Amino acid sequence: MPDWKLPITTPRLVLRDFVEEDWRSVHEYGSDPEVVRFMPWGPNTEEDTRAFVARALSARQEKPRRTFELAVTLGESGGLIGGCGIRVSRPTDLGADMGYCLRRDCWGRGYGTELSLAIVGFGFEELGLHRIIATCDPDNVASVRVLEKTGMKREATLREDSRIRGVWRDSYLYAILESEWTPSRGDA
Question: Which of 27, 86, 125, 184 has the highest count of CB atoms within 10 angstroms of its CB?
Fold first, then answer.
């Protein structure tokens, strides 16, 4: 079993495995209706949040590990400001999907781009992936910008592919190939 290089450290952030005690910080952003506006989950109840953290802890036991749900923390203070993840969804084809979520008071500071570059780098450089995808709501212009700054290319509009809180929503499908990844991007 490989020894994955966790935590992932960037100039301002540390991406680490969740621990059980993180549930309160996760609940802070997971229960905020504005934060989860474009997410297929939430706003979370305390039970929802505890169940998410329990699933993240359980995923660490996979052999081989295919799901990496990581806490996003500020490097200098260690405070938890969000979560991100990469899931090897197509192991035979070396394909994965990734996503992220940040507390509202951390929006617009470049953290999304910084953590996305780090998680994509982890996927290619540590997990040996060939292709990483992400989806976002077309109205979520901040996530569109983050995915494009990460080097992802929009490949499709998936029409009414998600039903979020009773409303059918379109999604943009973004992808990046290992051959398009520049390792130095992770230092940006």
Answer: 86
